Amino acid sequence: MFKSISNQFGSILVSLLSIQGVCSALAxxxxxxxxxxxxxxxxxxxxxxxDHYTVVHKxxxxxxxxxxxxxxxxxxxxxxxxxxxTWYVNQPDKDKICGRSAVVDITDGGIDYQYYAYSYTTGDxxxxxxxxxxxxxTLSDAMDYLHSIEASSVCIDLDHEGTWHGVLGLxxxxxxxxxxxxxxxxxxxxxxxENSIEDKAENNSDSHPEIEAAETNxxxxxxxxxxxxxxxxxxxxxxxxxxxxxxxxxKSQQLIAEIGGKIYEQSYKQNCAGVEGSLxxxxxxxxxxxxxxxxxxxxxxxxxxxxxVKALDDSWDGLRDTSALCMTMxxxxxxxxxxxxxxxxxDAQPAVHMCD
Length: 356
What we know:
By secondary structure, this protein is α+β, with helices and mostly antiparallel strands.
């Protein structure tokens, strides 16, 4: 099942509402990332709106660990993606999700992290039209920059040239900083601990000073620096119709975020077992999925989370009248293969059998 033969033998704020005085007081850095991917909606090639990230606060290392580059914090990025995307595509109560927050502990690459995520709006609702792949690209670029300045705790503000904003506080556990505190001075919705971020900055000015603001390169960086990373190719097969249609990618962003996260996690853990689940897209259609890795003995790939979600998003737009299918993923000329079964008609075409 699912190329079993191949498996065996293939070896995240209201203070920053564009008020310039506040921005200069915080001495922020701005970094803009252009998502150059094309959209197939309306059968036109439309340039996607870029995401932006603003570094509000950042501290240098106190303990032995700093924030790793994007290649080392894929689990962090994937987890934060899932949180933000779930919030801003939430149906049918988009206007009721502003002010939601989450604090998550996660270990990635042998480093213990804690992140704080918060969503707010300068308009009427906290929804956003941005794609998961755009947000993943932005977070990856931010992590590469933060690693380059040896930051161990940060607060960044994310926006999509609209009213939606996402706040992400991130800290290594060894830094001794609370990511929630790091963002508490940035927006009114965050609760402060007894020792606020201003107190900490003053009390720790000698031992743990905030990193001096620096202008961030606004040019999009390729994965891995100057060398463009290899993309993932996706082949579609066993396409079936006869039931509810799998929605276009703009209606399936929560699915793409979750499935992309599962694929990355299985690869990270070198886990060759299959994983399955189901989610509703923005049209209310339930899509069942089953994923299993193969191609080598560890079932892993060097592809970053942003590469995985981009491949899924780009391929998703070609489904059109499809109710079930198999997607086979390959990362360049490597041996890894990813097999993804999707189905809206589980009785007739179970997702678990689409790639048999």
